[in-house]
Amino acid sequence: MTETETLYCVNHSDRETLLRCNQCEQPICVQCAVQTPTGYRCKSCVRGQQKIFNTANISDYIFAPIIAATLSFTGSFLVGFLGFFTIFAAPFFGLIIMRIVRAVIKNRRSNTLFLVTAAAGAIGSLPLLIAALIPAINGLRAGGFNMYTLLPLVWRAAYSILTTGAIYYRLKGISF
Questions:
Q1: pLDDT at 51
Q2: N or C: which end of the chain has fewer CB within 10 A?
Q3: Same domain as 67, residue 39
């Protein structure tokens, strides 16, 4: 019969624990443990891993949004000619935007960069969405509901939503 030694959390010396970080093997309590896909880790190991993950330069935060907004605006213009097929083309436009952005930033990564780039893609699609919204509002004010003034608004809104989602999830590395 072997006795196990009592372990105490490396950060809280008054807390007994049986849990260890799966990277540095330090004993950690439940409060200090961070669950990862491969097991529990201490907060310092997780912070060290995040520093490796975030590799973006300051210039990436300038170029990626400008490129995403410009390309998204261009795609939004093309959507005016596609109608229903926007549903299929918008994720493809998002993929193209993501590939061009990734080539420019040389595959550097950061969660903030992904959010900023996706937001820029959404902002790039807004001018023509707003331009389609004005006739629809004017038509409703005049008392006439016309489906033909509403459809361009629907397709541009679908483009904005689908492209922004595709940009974000593709940059994040999630395939759909």
A1: 58
A2: N
A3: no
Q: How many domains does the chain have?
A: 2
Stated pTM of the model: 0.70
13 plus 81 within the same structural domain? no
Same domain membership, residue 157 and residue 134: yes
| The predicted structure's pLDDT at residue 176 | 47
Q: Which amino acid is at 122?
A: A
3-state secondary structure (DSSP) of residue 42? strand
pLDDT digits (tens, 9 = 90+) for 97-145: 999 999 999 988 888 999 999 999 999 999 999 988 888 888 778 877 6
Q: Which residues pair with 17 in a beta bridge?
A: 7
30 plus 67 within the same structural domain: no
HSE value, Cβ hemisphere, 13 Å, CA-based, for 159: 34
Token pair 């699609």 is found at 125
Residues 43 and 86 reside in one and the same domain: no
**81: its two tokens:** 């000619």
Q: Say how far apart CA 71 and CA 94 lie, in whole Å.
A: 9
Is beta strand 7-8 parallel, antiparallel or unpaired with respect to 16-17?
A: antiparallel
Range of the domain at 68: 58-172
